[in-house]
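Q: How do we represent a protein-ligand complex in a form that can be generated token by token?
A: Start from the inputs.
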Amino acid sequence: MTHSRIAGIGHYVPDNIYTNEDLAKFMDTSDEWIQERTGIKERRFATKHEETTATLGARASRIAIERAGTTAEEIDFIIFATLSPDYYFPGSGVILQRELGITKTEIGALDVRNQCSGFIYALSVADQFIKSGMYKNILVVGAEMHSSGLEFNTRGRGVSVIFGDGAGAVVLQPTDEAGKGILNSELHSDGTNAEMLSLLSPGSHGGYHHDDKEQFGFPDKDQLGEIFVTQKIVDDGFLYPHMDGKSVFKKAVVKFPEVITSSLAAVGKTPADIDMLIPHQANLRISQFVQKVLKLNDDQVFNNIQKYGNTTAASIPIALSEAWEQGKIKDNDLVCLAAFGSGFTWGSVVISW
Ligand code: COA
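Then emit the structure tokens for the protein with coenzyme A bound:
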């Protein structure tokens, strides 16, 4: 039976390093507060007007494509996961295609909007396309330029200290080698508390999902008028991410171990069999909690949030790429990727490397 294998992997993070002390110049926060709660020491921010989410993705993609021993022209499908696209529409997939100079082949480009679990969703979709025989060389990208849409002041400090910019990419190809490649993927969601980690505007909601409709400054129902963006939305910060951090934390520490254990069980494995767990880099405290619950030792879990912050859809491919570059993932290793985030959505992928 055909499986998908990661034939090439790469990542790119911008050069500009912003430490916690740097952020403290713009808002009432401290290195101590940020490190104690999240483990983050610094993050990278892209250069405005010179870099975009798609250009970050393109840099990671070029490395992945080269390492896969293929060329951009040979890529037959693109899947791009991000919550910070270049434009509201079209999606960044086609911008990436243009950046890579592969418009002549007119291949399809799909955008995935599953935030922190975006890369897991994208990889799982790509895996189905490979297994069905529809495509043979899929570029899967997770990229974020959060710095273009965070509030760098005390009002936004609960969110803005956590996120960073970066991109990671893989090239997925078929393999007939028994027991190799992606063995299983599992995807979940629960929209009950969709607004707990959200960016509400611009959008069509018009207050529909909210008890206090006045809060957004929308015109009356019968009046023609914009509800996409109102002055009140701008003034009150609804153009920025909102996060109920404590609730997200509580749900994440339950769902991470659950989905890791169940996707391993589907292939007859247990957490003890994991050679490398790459958890989405949401918060070092969440990763440490998951490690403890699953009884994994330090060598079985890879974290790099300390250097990059939470890069959302990019965090898993960046971490996977770094772990691989550092020789921490070897041939035949059992690798587990897992994510939880906004939606809520969560999932995992089990790979025999
Ligand atoms: N610097 C200093 N103080 C800050 C701050 C910052 N950057 N951000 C918030 N605070 C303040 C709050 O205003 C609050 O002050 P108050 O007690 O006077 O009201 C206090 O610190 C505690 O805030 P709270 O939000 O309750 O902190 P917390 O202990 O829940 O930690 C998170 C906040 C975000 C670090 C934590 O909830 C978390 O990591 N949650 C998971 C988030 C996550 O993983 N998101 C990504 C999901 S994919």
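The two ends are 17 Å apart (CA to CA). DSSP finds eleven helices and 13 strands in the chain.
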